[in-house]
């Protein structure tokens, strides 16, 4: 709003000043030329008049005839502007000057005080005189060195014209300036409107409403600014959201970790306390010791997995060697032998000599984790299928499956679909998180194809 | 009321559930364990004759907060025993009507004392304990040995009560001091030794009030 007012004021003032300057110039030039014209017209009149007088006077050489002629001439002329003096030897009149005709307010004395200048090249002189608000030009000619003829030309008309003209010009000037200002006001509002909108949006953005955007309506610089603003807002929103998300994930991870630590710690410290302070039977003492031992094992597994997660997160370069899938399957089968036998399950390996670049130990861990999950989800006597084809390795079980709404979350640390089941099997909920991280380091995308009650297929695709 | 108090334990961690049960049983409680919220809920319909429930919050099936409603329906006071130690959960638990909220890891003795307080409040604690050849009456503050009243000083009686109520569990001298004399009492642990000595002498319990090295005293039958 302020910028608009400022621009408006400055341009309005500049325009007004320029126009007024032009007006003054035009008016002074026009005024001068009008005055000149009027002067020339008056000069012509005077010239004709004096010419006529001279002509007439040529025949009247007689000293008595001259004044008579002059009186007669001027009476006939009968105007209010001419003055005629006759210089005679007669001293009756003041300074020996006799006033033949004078209908003006000017006396001989006043006339003699005017400074006459030559007009054109002839013997006619002229002087400027002003009385009241009106300017006059007084012409003078001396005829036969004894007759002084004056004629006063009023510039009243010229002045009136100039004044009228000034009025018009000023009216036009102010009109034009006013109109221009109005148009400028509208244009500025149109231009600055988006800036105001931009400002409002920025304020809202600063308050934390990161989904605020402006609508881009134009293709000029302001339109580009709006576009850039939207891009910036987009970037701010994305990075803020991802920061918030990672913060949330971290908090969740820490919360889960604490919980996972607390449970075995409660059991261990509880049993130790019980052993120390409570009178227990022999069997109960043994049971307590066994629980302590088991819970310690659980803590150890948890810390090992945590360490692995941390290592994997930090380790910047893994060495991948081209390994045949058969070796990977063998390694996994060997490690999972015990858990499979416990449930009388079989492992079926299908491969056609595929080989992928991988870290064998890490990939074995992945398969062990997936097989372990499969075994936990299956009933006794079922089977797990390891299959390799194209650029894909998949692990399939025929167990209870994963509900659709859980599928996204299972890769998160500490997430367990069936809490009691995983706990009983000693899981901490880190297996799939670890798997996801190893897969990420191998550039493997993980897809889950699962239906409740129909088993699960985990597809590892080398990208 | 006489006889053992019956306690319901709902806790998905087998190790912790068994540990609680082990300690409660030696302290003269009957226990029933469920590892799953929904199972506990189903079982409650059939059998809800419990004096107190110890519930975990994060349970498979039905969580502890949900289970609280069922417990209230059968008028069973509840203590939450959970790893969740955020204020919201505590408020939710206590506002929801639980008698107490204990955060894991916890001390067994603390659990026993809190349980005892709740049972006392809800009048589910028997007013007399018969132990060995003695009958302790809490209301009358009297001890009868073989039907003969034995005169004890007030602090001696209270000490006997604490030891008898938590029989088979060792209690440190500091805790005994706190439980019998109160937290404000700035006495020395020698006071406890002197009183224990008096009890042993007056009631002939030198065999039964055992000194457990580094742990304190334990009353054994």
From TrEMBL, chain A:
<keyword id="KW-1133">Transmembrane helix</keyword>
<keyword id="KW-0547">Nucleotide-binding</keyword>
<protein>
    <recommendedName>
        <fullName>histidine kinase</fullName>
        <ecNumber>2.7.13.3</ecNumber>
    </recommendedName>
</protein>
<dbReference type="GO" id="GO:0000155">
    <property type="term" value="F:phosphorelay sensor kinase activity"/>
</dbReference>
<feature type="domain" description="HAMP">
    <location>
        <begin position="189"/>
        <end position="241"/>
    </location>
</feature>
<dbReference type="InterPro" id="IPR036890">
    <property type="entry name" value="HATPase_C_sf"/>
</dbReference>
<dbReference type="Pfam" id="PF02518">
    <property type="entry name" value="HATPase_c"/>
</dbReference>
<dbReference type="InterPro" id="IPR050398">
    <property type="entry name" value="HssS/ArlS-like"/>
</dbReference>
<keyword id="KW-0067">ATP-binding</keyword>
<dbReference type="GO" id="GO:0005524">
    <property type="term" value="F:ATP binding"/>
</dbReference>
<keyword id="KW-0902">Two-component regulatory system</keyword>
<dbReference type="InterPro" id="IPR003594">
    <property type="entry name" value="HATPase_dom"/>
</dbReference>
<dbReference type="InterPro" id="IPR036097">
    <property type="entry name" value="HisK_dim/P_sf"/>
</dbReference>
<feature type="transmembrane region" description="Helical">
    <location>
        <begin position="165"/>
        <end position="188"/>
    </location>
</feature>
<keyword id="KW-0472">Membrane</keyword>
<keyword id="KW-0418">Kinase</keyword>
<feature type="domain" description="Histidine kinase">
    <location>
        <begin position="256"/>
        <end position="463"/>
    </location>
</feature>
<keyword id="KW-0597">Phosphoprotein</keyword>
<keyword id="KW-1003">Cell membrane</keyword>
<dbReference type="InterPro" id="IPR004358">
    <property type="entry name" value="Sig_transdc_His_kin-like_C"/>
</dbReference>
<keyword id="KW-0812">Transmembrane</keyword>
<dbReference type="InterPro" id="IPR003660">
    <property type="entry name" value="HAMP_dom"/>
</dbReference>
From TrEMBL, chain B:
<keyword id="KW-0804">Transcription</keyword>
<keyword id="KW-0597">Phosphoprotein</keyword>
<feature type="domain" description="Response regulatory">
    <location>
        <begin position="6"/>
        <end position="119"/>
    </location>
</feature>
<dbReference type="GO" id="GO:0032993">
    <property type="term" value="C:protein-DNA complex"/>
</dbReference>
<dbReference type="InterPro" id="IPR001789">
    <property type="entry name" value="Sig_transdc_resp-reg_receiver"/>
</dbReference>
<dbReference type="InterPro" id="IPR039420">
    <property type="entry name" value="WalR-like"/>
</dbReference>
<dbReference type="GO" id="GO:0005829">
    <property type="term" value="C:cytosol"/>
</dbReference>
<dbReference type="InterPro" id="IPR036388">
    <property type="entry name" value="WH-like_DNA-bd_sf"/>
</dbReference>
<dbReference type="Pfam" id="PF00072">
    <property type="entry name" value="Response_reg"/>
</dbReference>
<feature type="modified residue" description="4-aspartylphosphate">
    <location>
        <position position="56"/>
    </location>
</feature>
<dbReference type="GO" id="GO:0006355">
    <property type="term" value="P:regulation of DNA-templated transcription"/>
</dbReference>
<feature type="DNA-binding region" description="OmpR/PhoB-type">
    <location>
        <begin position="126"/>
        <end position="221"/>
    </location>
</feature>
<dbReference type="InterPro" id="IPR011006">
    <property type="entry name" value="CheY-like_superfamily"/>
</dbReference>
<keyword id="KW-0805">Transcription regulation</keyword>
<protein>
    <recommendedName>
        <fullName>Stage 0 sporulation protein A homolog</fullName>
    </recommendedName>
</protein>
<feature type="domain" description="OmpR/PhoB-type">
    <location>
        <begin position="126"/>
        <end position="221"/>
    </location>
</feature>
<comment type="function">
    <text>May play the central regulatory role in sporulation. It may be an element of the effector pathway responsible for the activation of sporulation genes in response to nutritional stress. Spo0A may act in concert with spo0H (a sigma factor) to control the expression of some genes that are critical to the sporulation process.</text>
</comment>
<dbReference type="InterPro" id="IPR001867">
    <property type="entry name" value="OmpR/PhoB-type_DNA-bd"/>
</dbReference>
<keyword id="KW-0238">DNA-binding</keyword>
<dbReference type="GO" id="GO:0000976">
    <property type="term" value="F:transcription cis-regulatory region binding"/>
</dbReference>
<dbReference type="GO" id="GO:0000156">
    <property type="term" value="F:phosphorelay response regulator activity"/>
</dbReference>
<dbReference type="Pfam" id="PF00486">
    <property type="entry name" value="Trans_reg_C"/>
</dbReference>
């Amino acid at each position: 709003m302020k910028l608009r007012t400022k621009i408006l004021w400055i341009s309005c003032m500049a325009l007004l000043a320029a126009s007024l300057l032009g007006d003054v110039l035009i008016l002074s030039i026009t005024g001068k030329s009008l005055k000149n014209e009027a002067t020339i017209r008056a000069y012509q009149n005077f010239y004709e008049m004096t010419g006529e007088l001279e002509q007439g006077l040529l025949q009247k050489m007689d000293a008595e005839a001259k004044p008579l002629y002059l009186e007669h001439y001027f009476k006939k002329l009968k105007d209010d502007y001419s003055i005629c003096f006759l210089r005679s030897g007669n001293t009756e009149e003041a300074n020996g000057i006799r006033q033949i005709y004078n209908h003006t307010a000017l006396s001989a004395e006043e006339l003699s005080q005017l400074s006459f200048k030559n007009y054109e090249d002839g013997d006619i002189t002229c002087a400027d005189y002003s009385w009241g608000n009106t300017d006059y030009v007084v012409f003078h000619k001396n005829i036969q060195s004894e007759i002084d003829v004056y004629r006063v030309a009023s510039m009243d008309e010229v002045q009136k014209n100039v004044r009228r003209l000034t009025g018009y010009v000023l009216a036009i000037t102010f009109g034009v300036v006013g109109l221009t200002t109005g148009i400028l006001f509208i244009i500025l509002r149109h231009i600055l409107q988006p800036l105001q909108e931009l400002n409002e949006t920025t304020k809202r953005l600063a308050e934390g409403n990161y989904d605020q955007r402006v609508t881009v309506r134009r293709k000029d610089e302001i339109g580009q600014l709006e576009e850039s603003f939207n891009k910036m807002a987009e970037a701010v929103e994305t990075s803020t959201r991802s920061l918030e998300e990672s913060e949330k994930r971290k908090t969740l991870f820490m919360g889960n970790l604490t919980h996972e630590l607390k449970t075995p710690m409660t059991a261990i410290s509880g049993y130790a306390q019980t052993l120390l302070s409570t009178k227990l039977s022999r069997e109960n003492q043994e049971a307590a010791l066994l629980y302590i031992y088991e819970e310690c094992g659980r803590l150890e597994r948890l810390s090992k997995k945590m360490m692995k997660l941390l290592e994997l997160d930090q380790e910047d370069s893994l060495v991948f060697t081209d390994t045949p899938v058969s070796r990977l399957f063998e390694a996994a089968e060997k490690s999972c032998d015990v858990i499979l036998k416990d449930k009388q399950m079989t492992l079926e390996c299908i491969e056609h000599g595929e080989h992928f670049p991988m870290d064998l130990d890490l990939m074995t861990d992945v398969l062990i984790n997936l097989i372990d999950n499969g075994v936990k989800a299956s009933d006794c006597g079922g089977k797990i299928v390891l299959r390799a084809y194209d650029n894909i390795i998949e692990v399939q079980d025929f167990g209870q499956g994963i509900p659709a709404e859980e599928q996204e979350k299972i890769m998160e640390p500490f997430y367990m679909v069936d809490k009691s089941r995983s706990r009983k099997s000693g899981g901490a909920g880190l297996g799939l998180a670890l798997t996801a991280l190893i897969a990420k380091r191998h550039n493997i995308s993980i897809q889950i194809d699962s239906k409740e009650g129909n088993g699960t297929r985990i597809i590892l695709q080398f990208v | 009321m006489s006889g053992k108090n019956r306690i319901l334990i709902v806790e998905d961690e087998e190790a912790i559930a068994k540990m609680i049960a082990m300690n409660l049983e030696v302290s003269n409680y009957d226990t029933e364990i469920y590892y799953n919220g929904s199972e506990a809920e189903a079982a409650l319909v059939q059998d809800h004759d419990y004096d107190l429930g110890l519930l975990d919050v994060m349970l498979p099936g039905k969580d502890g907060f949900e289970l609280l409603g069922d417990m209230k329906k059968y008028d069973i006071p509840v203590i939450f025993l959970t790893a969740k130690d955020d204020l919201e959960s505590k408020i939710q638990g206590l506002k929801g009507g639980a008698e107490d909220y204990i955060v894991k890891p916890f001390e067994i003795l603390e659990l026993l004392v809190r349980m005892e307080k709740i049972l006392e409040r809800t009048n589910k604690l028997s007013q007399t304990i018969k132990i060995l050849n003695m009958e302790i009456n809490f209301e009358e503050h009297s001890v009868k040995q073989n039907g003969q009243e034995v005169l004890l000083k007030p602090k001696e009686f209270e000490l006997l009560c604490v030891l008898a109520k938590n029989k088979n569990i060792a209690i440190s001298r500091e805790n005994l001091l706190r439980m019998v004399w109160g937290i404000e009492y700035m006495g020395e642990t020698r006071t406890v030794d002197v009183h224990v000595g008096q009890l042993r002498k007056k009631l002939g319990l030198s065999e039964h009030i055992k000194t457990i090295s580094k742990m304190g005293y334990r009353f054994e039958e």
